[in-house]
Amino acid sequence: MGNYKNYKKQNTKASETRKTVLELLLEWEKVGGRFDLMLKGVLDKYNYLDSRDKAFMSMLARGCVERRITLDYIIDMYADTNGKDIKPAIRNILRMGLFQVFYMEGIADHAACSEAVLLTQEKGFKGLAPFVNGVMRAVLRDRDNIKWPSLKDDDKSKKIYYSVYYSMPIWIVGILIKQFGAAETKVILESFLTRSGLSVRVNNVSDTETVIKELKEAGIDYSVSEYLPYMINVSGIEGVSRLQSFTDGKVTIQDVSSALVAELSGIKKGDRVLDMCAAPGGKATHFALKAGDEGHVTACDISDDKVWLIEDNISRMNLNNINAVLNDGTVFNKDFEGAFDVVVCDAPCSGLGIMGRKPDIRYNASFEGINELAGLQKQILANAVRYVKTGGTLIFSTCTLTDTENMGGREYILSQPGMKAAAFENIPEALKDESSLKDGYLLLKPGIHKCDGFFISKYTKGD
């Protein structure tokens, strides 16, 4: 058991940051919910901590969720439990320790090991401290010689290997390989583990230099998107919300892929636009800017909380040509029938295109869930088609990658009387050679494209 006795003699305690992360992981496993929101709640609660401590907590907590399949593979390989389950607290302590060992720079191996032992003791499992110490030390001895699943030149073995090595449920890997092939799937999976940061949309292009100057002064790394010149990629997104440009409504936090929906929609000055699933309002406010003062945007969502998010964005940007409305997209609204030049349906989906931003999506999604979402989309799209006026435009988009949701929704729209696929306008130069464009839609893939995974398609309504 190595030097466990030395840890036992030390009159020290596990760090508060690690204890907080452990409690967060256990709470998330117990009650579920959106991990990103739970993590934000913890970081807000401990806002008084040094920025380095908060960054450590964020990386460790997120990493243990993101890399859970990989970490559990290693734990199960080295934990001789004779078929007995490992207690949730102990498994999470080991995940935390091993994540620090394999994926965090600047953390000494002995510190990761000793903190794991101390956490075990303080959680009331002193009798399991030697077990934790033993697993940690066994892995440390073999850290450069972990026996990963065999990687052969066939899709079956690649599916198993990719699942373990890139920490992705095997059924999702299977979908990706079937749709995109093993080579592109590898790039996509790698991107989910390496992408960071977000983008901000400069609402008025003339403010771009002012925003860039403020980003520089705040020490926030940035780069201008090659797709849209008014989109700026940033790191340290938490700092953006504190910028004067954000408070003044000059910038909106939004991914480039989401901004492309408005850019490709063909919305013109004076258009009446309906955003059927609008929260939190990033796209809806973008539509309002495109429609101008002579146009109008009706931004809908299904709950008071979501409508409030939209209203908050409208207020911050001081927009007068948009209103937020409580409306269930699955229920036909007679007042909307044939009333809009452009209807946008950014439909509820499995979110597999944004797993790099929300790592818990991979554990919450399922085959059954995807099929249910595809059915829900068709209910909403049935109404969307009726809301578009003759000669108007329908935009159908998602932040997922599955054909069941994307192509299924597209096929449904094209099956409706008068609906035809339409060509995009304002295609960014860097995207003009995309193969999917020839089929009338744009599929953005993480790692292949410099943005989240997204599906965007456009249709017109004839007589």
Describe the structure in your own words.
The chain has 463 residues and is an alpha/beta fold. It has 4 domains: 4-142, Orthogonal Bundle (N-utilizing Substance Protein B Homolog, Chain A); 155-194; 199-253, Sun protein, domain 3 (Alpha-Beta Plaits), CATH 3.30.70; 257-461, Vaccinia Virus protein VP39 (Rossmann fold, 3-Layer(aba) Sandwich). It has 19 helices and 12 strands. Strands 5, 6, 7, 8, 9, 10, 11 and 12 form an 8-stranded mixed beta sheet that branches. The protein has a 4-stranded antiparallel beta sheet with strand order 2-3-1-4. The longest helix has 25 residues, at 170-194. The radius of gyration is 24 Å and the shape is globular. The N and C termini lie far apart (78 Å).
CATH class of the largest domain: Alpha Beta
| Shape annotation | globular
Mean pLDDT: 92
Kindly give the count of domains.
4
CATH-level-4 superfamily name of the largest domain: Vaccinia Virus protein VP39
- Biggest sheet architecture: 8 strands, mixed
The Rg value, from CA coordinates, equals: 24 Å
| Proper CATH architecture of the largest domain | 3-Layer(aba) Sandwich
| N-C termini distance | 78 Å
Sheet/helix structural class: alpha/beta
Beta-sheet strand percentage?
5-15%
The helix count comes to 19
Q: Which segments are poorly predicted (pLDDT under 50) over 5 or more consecutive residues?
A: 1-11
- What percent of the residues sit in helical stretches (DSSP H or I)? 40-55%
Sequence-ordered SSE layout with sheet pairings:
Blueprint: H1 4-9, H2 16-31, H3 35-45, H4 51-66, H5 68-78, H6 88-103, H7 109-122, H8 129-142, H9 155-165, H10 170-194, E1 198-202, H11 208-217, E2 222-224, E3 231-234, H12 237-240, H13 244-247, E4 251-253, H14 256-265, E5 272-275, H15 282-291, E6 296-301, H16 304-317, E7 322-326, E8 340-346, H17 361-364, H18 367-387, E9 388-398, H19 403-414, E10 419-421, E11 441-444, E12 454-461
Parallel strand pairs: 5-6, 5-8, 6-7, 8-9
Antiparallel strand pairs: 1-3, 1-4, 2-3, 9-12, 10-12, 11-12
